[in-house]
Amino acid sequence: MTNESPIVARSVAAMRKEVEEWRRAGDVVGVVPTMGALHNGHLALLQAAKSECDRVIATIFVNPAQFAANEDLDAYPRGEAADLAKLQELQTDMAFMPDAGEMYPDGFVTKVRVEGITEILCGLVRPVHFGGVATVVSKLFNQSQADRAYFGEKDYQQFLVVRRMARDLDIPIDVVPVPTVREADGLAMSSRNVYLSIEQRAAAPALYRVIRDVAARVTNGTSAEAAVAWGLEELATCGFDSIEYLEVLEAEMLGPIDFPNKPGRVFVAAHLGSTRLIDNVAV
Ligand code: AMP
Question: What pLDDT score does 2 carry?
């Protein structure tokens, strides 16, 4: 590790050159894919990677392919200098920061599609999203040649999709989940939290409180339907404008809940004004 961390690679070739040397030295390489605007949630992923790997690559790429035309691609928060300062503080070995032309050169036509688990929850409202994620992450896995990849449970469905994709495509990488990092009041940290007004920010922690309560009810024997019905009412009372979904599902393939035989998970997506918040907890 030099003091000049991180090495900034903007091309696949530059990243590969460095990684090849690391691998020749026998180093275990970890990769943490992000869209930047790094917060403590991302930092937890980087710390987990650092504790288990010899070399850590943070990738920062706001991936146009996972945003639909009506979504917040242009408004998405970006801050390269602040991100690099955080990576330096954590002594991350490399920041891979390609532009869209490097990731999707002229003539690019390949898409990775994961079926089933992408067609519910966030996939219903964001039909473009997981195809874009699976495509870019499979590229990042191939480009980085990493041994381990770290994903946040905050985006639990994304973690499942990525792990499934890597297994199905025989990409030799371990996909490791990292628990959600929260603000002191329970709100899951997210780059999109900056969109919230003061009033919305005050209402937002109810999301976590309600799904925890739904999980507790199911654990205590209440039916998933009854727990969800209670949760929907509670969220509306707390000021959520529209609730996209509140569901209790089996935690691996997102089938019907089969608690206590199999682990379950409560998933929610809801809006405060135009800001969409998601969260989930284990049952
Ligand atoms: P993003 O930059 O939002 O695409 O997120 C990059 C990675 O950080 C994904 O694996 C996310 O699940 C993870 N992540 C985002 N927020 C959190 C959080 N609050 N706690 C843990 N991981 C997170």
Answer: 47
Active site residue 42: yes
Averaged pLDDT of the chain: 96
Tell me the CA distances in angstroms from 42 to 48, 137, 209, 249, 277, one per residue in order: 10, 16, 22, 26, 17
Q: What residues contact residue 70 under an 8 Å CB cut-off, 6+ apart?
A: none
Is the shortest distance between the CB of 157 and ligand 1 below 6 Å? Answer: no
User: Is the minimum distance from the CB of 59 to ligand 1 under 6 angstroms?
Assistant: no
Ligand 1 centre to CA of 62 (Å) is 13
**Which class for 33: exposed (0-12), middle (13-18), buried (19 or more C-beta within 10 A)?**
buried
Residue 1 has pLDDT above 90, yes or no: no
| Predicted pLDDT of residue 3 | 53
